[in-house]
Write a structure and sequence with these properties.
The protein is an alpha/beta fold. It has one domain: Rossmann fold (3-Layer(aba) Sandwich), CATH 3.40.50.360. The chain has six helices and seven strands, in the order βαβααβαβββαβα. The strands form two sheets. Strands 2-1-3-6-7 form a five-stranded parallel beta sheet, sandwiched between helices. Strands 4-5 form a two-stranded antiparallel ribbon. The longest helix is centred in the last third of the chain and has 17 residues.
Length: about 190
Amino acid sequence: MKKCLFVDCLIRGEESRTRELAEAFFEKLKDYDIEHLILEEEGLRPLTGDFFYERQELLEKNDLTHDRFRYAWQFKEADLIVIAAPFWDLSFPSLLKIYIENISVEGISFSSTEKGLKGLCKAENMIYLTTRGGIYGDNNPMDCATPYMKALGPFFGFDKVYCIAADGMDVWGYDSKGSLDKAKQEAKDLAKHL
């Protein structure tokens, strides 16, 4: 059976509206084993100081089997990637960025070639699920999360990156329930077709 890696950056716990969106997606996703990675439980560290230099030494030795790279291997080998994170300070929580730093490993998730970077991941598709307090819509320069997620597609080798967002969750007088319901339906429809 195919494997779906669910990268869970749902930092508001059970009251997370992004969790509702993710649950709607997984309700309709069939034929995949779900590997649920809860980032808050992983003790991830940013690439600084000795932690950074240890990684550099391993890469220089081409020691890609070290446990430091387990997240990169897990990400590379998944058949489908689903990332769920709330919109946070014009992007997403820093914990997700730290995770992305830890999976971006040359020789595992991408390679450098004479023609530029080449993604090495197995998955054809990545899905990014989010809810946003304000109303951002498409191509709003204040939304730095969606363009970043879309840029990960060619970097890791995905054919397609789907971004599903519910806007207006914190706008007084806005139909936030309707916005979330619409995004949930979009997520369900996508899951049925994967």
